[in-house]
């Protein structure tokens, strides 16, 4: 999938309130609706968090542009998601050629 397709995939996930996975450094992060997560049930917006960690970033917005342009470690969430998906796709392609 190309950059445009991955951006569309990211935006679709936001629209249907689907959780997304990506990797920052050596840690997997997840992005999901705040209301689906304990302690945030009454809040609007989204959160991104590391699984089995207390590292949570609350994004108090439902605006897709705000969410996808939120930065962690110098890159937007969209950039982290695209890098993660591209690496996963490249790995799958190299496994197919073996």
Annotation field: number of helices: 3
Q: Write the element-wise H/E pattern from the N-terminal end onward.
A: HEEEEHEEH
Structural class: alpha+beta
| Average pLDDT score | 90
Number of strands: 6
Helix residue percentage: 25-40%
Shape designation? globular
Largest sheet: 4 strands, antiparallel
Radius of gyration based on Cα positions: 14 Å
- Report the β-strand fraction as a percent range: 25-35%
Task: Quote the distance from N terminus to C terminus.
Answer: 21 Å
Low-confidence stretches: none
- Give me the side-by-side strand order of the main sheet: 1-2-3-4
Tally of distinct domains: 1
Overview of the molecule:
The chain is of the alpha+beta class. It has one domain (3-91). It has 3 helices and 6 strands, in the order αββββαββα. It has helices spanning 3-15, 64-68, 77-96, and strands at 20-24, 27-33, 46-50, 56-59, 71-72, 75-76. The radius of gyration is 14 Å and the shape is globular. The two termini are 21 Å apart.
In short:
This protein is of the alpha+beta class and 98 residues long. It has helices at residues 3-15, 64-68, 77-96, and strands at residues 20-24, 27-33, 46-50, 56-59, 71-72, 75-76. It has 3 helices and 6 strands.
